[in-house]
Specification:
The protein is α+β, with helices and mostly antiparallel strands. It has eight helices and 24 strands. Strands 7-6-11-3-14-15 form a six-stranded antiparallel beta sheet, with no helix packed on it. Strands 1, 4, 9, 10 and 17 form a five-stranded antiparallel beta sheet that branches. A hairpin with a 2-residue loop joins strand 23 and strand 24.
Length: 381
Amino acid sequence: MGTWAAAPTAVPADKIQTLGDQTVRQVVHVSVGGDLPQVTLSNEYGAEPVRVGAARIGVRAGSGASTATIPGSDRPLTFNGATATVLAPGQALVSDPADLVVTAGADLVISLYLPERTRTGTVSPRAMQQHLVVAGDATGRSDPGPGRTITRYLWLTGVSIRAVRNTSAIVALGDSITTGVRTTGNANHRWPDLLAARLRAEGLSRGVLNVGLSGNRLLFGYEDPTGSADEKASIGAAAVRRFDRDVLTHPGVGYVITLIGVNDLANPPARGAAEMIAGHRELIARSRAAGLRVIGGTLLPFGGSSRRYDTPANRRTRDQLNAWIRGGGEYDAVIDFDAVMRDPRNPRRLNPRYDCGDGLHPNDEGTAALGTAVPLNLFAG
């Protein structure tokens, strides 16, 4: 059962990092609990093999930017029984189950030791969480000591657990609003995290997997590998192209929530409402074919944001798309994020309470409103 996820992208030339004889300690905030966790590593966009000399998983000690683990909690991660592995270019690999009990809502630290010179070819670029790069093999240390901070996930795309019967997962497919950009870092204020907390409080055993990508679009994206990637490669593949990988490959998925399309309006090539609706219909068809319940989210208002977004043509297209999402009857259910987030006195703008200041992204209070807007009865069956 999926309990945490991140969507991978290639790395533009000026963002490539090189590691060697170093350990990357990465923090993940799980949604649902269980035991026997497995970790998915991906070198999908890498042009070179990645040698992992050792890997471990443990329960985080502390909060904020801490990558320390509770002494005695960490376990080795193995791959087909081996403590070391090599990720070939384009390969994704799932670890063996680790002998660890994972509490719902806990933070885990996943440590990867890179013994050789290694270029970061596959990342999830906006973690909203600080991680640490430490000299040498620090996988077995409860206190890693000093290191260099990074704010991307490197090669890490999923964590799954063995959960109780009747547990299933919800995938949140979106852009920077889903990623939690402009919220407080190291605080898990992304709206899918807040939805997961509500589900736990109500005793509903549902994983929530956040596969948002900042800048992501419904219909256009970048898929070339690192080394030949576009300078905007961090926006990732188009949602209609990455759907199978970022939604269907995670175990136990029963639902998908879409909140995607605003970046198609603000960037070339220009898209009209008919094209956008066709893209959403493709997401619906893919979900239905996989037996998923698919829930459509209306696009948030963007009045007063940058000129790329806030144009009469873009406002019309958003209104037409939202009208179809609400009234078209093609989604299994609808979450009217627009109605929750708009300013009652000026519906084309975000409510000032929820606006981070750029007219486009919600602040912490705004993402809390998004997480609260999702009716929990959608997942009770």
